[in-house]
Amino acid sequence: MESIGMDLHQELESAAPNRRRRIYLTLGILVLAAMAIFLWFATGRQAENAKPRFETRKVRQGDLTVTVGATGTLEPTNQVDVGSELSGIIQSVTVDFNDQVRIGQELARLDDTKLKAAVAKSEAALVSARASLREAKATATEARANYERMRHLRRSTDNRVPSDQDLETAKATLDRALAAEDSAQARIAEAIATLNVDRTNLEKSVIYSPINGVVLTRSVDPGQTVAASFQAPVLFTLAEDLALMELHVDVDEADVGLVREGQPAVFTVDAYAERSFPAVIRQVRYGAETTSGVVTYETVLTVSNADLTLRPGMTATAEITVQEVRDALLVPNAALRFVPPAQAATGPSGFMGRLMPGPPRRGGPTDNAGAPAGPKIWRLQDGQPVPVAVTLGQSDGQWTEVRAAELTPGAEVIVGTMEASR
To answer: Is the pLDDT assigned to residue 354 strictly greater than 60?
Structure first.
């Protein structure tokens, strides 16, 4: 009995370690399973939290107005700078800023004291020249009579009297008298010309308006000295008719191909920011202007200003209507700029992605991201962005005309992403 008991005791002692190992192994398996389940759910939740949310807008059917923007300044249709050809002191100024003037109206007057004296001197010189002419004519008449008398005498004396020398002397005297007469005649013409110049200068001492219009600027006051040595100084600037003005804008070289004469436009000025003024393109000039490396072309627009609200020199911002598209399929420009995140475009990634890979992509030519090559927009399909190839048309900066068989009015297209939920 004792031997049997000892054997049983030994068997129990040898079985205990095996039992403990099985228990430990079972516990280890349970821990590993729990960890796998935890990682499974944690990875799935993380992927779900990281999944982007997309902002969408609807495709619409409608009209599209394509415009070109440009800035410039308002100018009168005809602006004239009035100056003085003469130097002198301003004696009087008869107009002021904003005054309405008529053709031939006196604007200012120079001191004409010296000019009147010059006219008087020229008139006296003309009188003297005419007196010299009369004297020269009398001398010529006397010399001609003496020469004819000597010739008659020579014929009657059969060429004996007077002598050849005396006859030649009489002929020379007559020629000198005739030359003096011509010289006196020339001095009269010169005196008349000088008198005309002096009278013209006297007339120009009064400055008249060359047009019907309004005085924009006045640069002189009575008593001021005007110096016209090298060029005529500008005394007044006149605008012919402010009821009809011009808007000169600079159109960028990228847009000038769309701009044509006769196209309508609207513009605003800072003085009346909430009001739009109509205009029509009258001229697109060929000459280019380059400023800081930017090439522009001056374009002239006709502007009606019947109420005289607008003023020369105002800065204007114009929108020129270059094309109107009717009943087009339109998408927001943000949809054309949208590029999906890599994980949204390629499907789930990481642990879940390896366990549940998405189906392979099919279709035509693709870019590096697997989307169709060329212009595209993206729409949602089963929560994932799907590219749609489109053909682009005109754009107004906010909406763009597109053509795509897969798009219909009201379809939702992706324009951006929102912050992922947490």
So the answer is: no
**How far is it, in rounded angstroms, from Cα 259 to Cα 67?**
9
Single-letter residue type at 249 = V
Q: Determine the CATH number of domain 68-77+240-324.
A: 2.40.30.170
| CB contact at 8 A, 221 and 90 | yes
Instruction: Please state whether the predicted TM-score (pTM) of the whole model is above 0.90.
Output: no
| 325-342 residue pLDDT tens | 999 999 999 999 998 876
Cα dihedral 289→294→298→303 (10° resolution):
-150
Report the DSSP beta bridge partners of residue 387.
378
**Tokens representing residue 404 in the block:** 């795509």
184 has pLDDT over 90? yes
Which is the CATH superfamily of the domain at 112-204? Answer: Helix hairpin bin (1.10.287.470)
Radius of gyration for the chain, computed over Cα atoms and rounded to the nearest angstrom: 52
Strand order in 100-101's β-sheet?
79-83, 234-239, 213-218, 100-101
CATH 2.40.50.100 correct for 82-109+208-239: yes
Task: Tell which residue, 383, 365, 239, 205, has the closest CA to residue 311.
Answer: 239
